[in-house]
What we know:
Helix 2 (36-47) links the parallel strand 2 (24-30) and strand 3. The protein has helices at 10-19, 36-47, 57-64, 87-93, 109-121, 139-145, 160-169, 207-211, 232-247, and strands at 4-8, 24-30, 51-55, 72-77, 99-104, 126-130, 154-157, 173-177, 183-184, 194-199, 215-218. The chain contains 9 helices and 11 strands. Helix content is 35%, strand content 22%. A 7-stranded parallel sheet has the order 7-6-5-10-8-11-9, with helices on both faces. The protein has a 4-stranded mixed sheet with strand order 1-4-2-3.
Amino acid sequence: xxxxxxxxxxxxxxxxxxxxxxxxxxxxxxxxxxxxxxxxxxxxxxxxxxxxxxxxxxxxxxxxxxxxxxxxxxxxxxxxxxxxxxxxxxxxxxxxxxxxxxxxxxxxxxxxxxxxxxxxxxxxxxxxxxxxxxxxxxxxxxxxxxxxxxxxxxxxxxxxxxxxxxxxxxxxxxxxxxxxxxxxxxxxxxxxxxxxxxxxxxxxxxxxxxxxxxxxxxxxxxxxxxxxxxxxxxxxxxxxxxxxxxxx
Length: 248
């Protein structure tokens, strides 16, 4: 099912026009703006037969509220939305090399956007997070992710613990990141079907989430602190790209 929404900001709109033009319905650019990147976006959109309108800055503010739009927004009909029912097919299509990022209760939309951006860059199979008590994909997330929010399967889970158990049944090994864990993340073999589970900004992994991981591990930090002292988006980049390194 497609839902129309607005995305804002130079990077997000540019990525959508470049990589998913079929779902961009129109681009609105601030009249009189001198930023050459806006001119590039306008030319790129027109080449792809996307409607472009020059409008007053107040019109852009009215569309996206207090979100910083940098003089450009796009009306976007998002491509496919995903649910837990799609997981089996996604895992099977990865042919034994699924890489899933699970976020247990991330609250900050900038963190979620950054995590999605890292996941897309790492070629992750999917990103899973709870439907409740966690930020969902919104305009801020889309902007921060620079288009990644719509280029990678994003799955809001009704019951995260059940989803983790489902992944295990599909042959996915689940590693949870916890600062107090004894085992080091660097000791893991991440070349097969793997899900990497990170907690929210303040509370880390919830109890039921921990209990449904196959193993808890930590990112060793000689400078002191536990994994919560790393921003969740930084930690996700670290663990995702260790998997990429091992699979190279």
